[in-house]
Amino acid sequence: MYEIGEICFGGYLCVVSMWDIRKREIPVWLIAAGGILSASLGYFHGKIPLLLMVTGALVGGVFLLVSRVTQEAFGYGDSLMIAVTGVYLGFWNVLYLLVWAYVLTAVFAGYVLIRKGFQKDAAFPFVPFLLAAYIGIVCLGGI
Q1: Domain range for residue 39?
Q2: Residue 80 CA: distances (Å) to CA of 1, 46, 47, 59, 89
Q3: For residue 102, which of 126, 71, 85, 69 has the smallest C-alpha distance?
Q4: pTM for the model
Q5: Burial of 88 (0-12, 13-18, 19+ CB in 10 A)
Q6: By the 8 A CB rule, do 16 and 132 touch?
Q7: pLDDT by residue (tens digit) across 16-72?
Q8: Which Gene3D superfamilies does the entry link to (predicted)?
C-alpha cells in the first residue's frame, strides 16, 4: 500500500507541477484535492502518526506567513502545496524534502543567474522542485 501511495502522491505532484509551469498559479480545487488525497493516504496506510501529519501541515502554515510578509514573493499556492505535502509525509519528512527542494532551486537559480544575468523580477515555479526532490528521495528509499 505504501508504494501505491508514493506513486499516487508523485502523480499528483506531477499534475500540479505541470499546472504551475504552464499557468504560474495553482487552483484551489487542485490543492483541496491534494489535501483530501494526502489525508486519505496518510490515514489508510497509517505509517505517519496523526501528530506528525498535523505538524507537517503546520510547516505549510509557516510558509503562508512568509508568503504574506513577502507580498507573495513565495506564492500562496506553493505554501499550500507544502502544507498538503506535510500532511502526506509528516513533519520530519517534509522538512527533509524541503531541504532538497531548496538545494535544487538554488542550483537552478544559479544557472539562470549565470545564463541570463541578474533580473530583479525573475520568478519561476517552486512545485517542480518539490516534485524533483520527492522523486529523488523516493528512488533513493529515503521516505
Answers
A1: 2-139
A2: 25, 22, 22, 10, 14
A3: 126
A4: 0.91
A5: buried
A6: no
A7: 999 999 999 999 999 999 999 999 888 787 788 999 999 999 999 999 999 999 988
A8: 1.20.120.1220
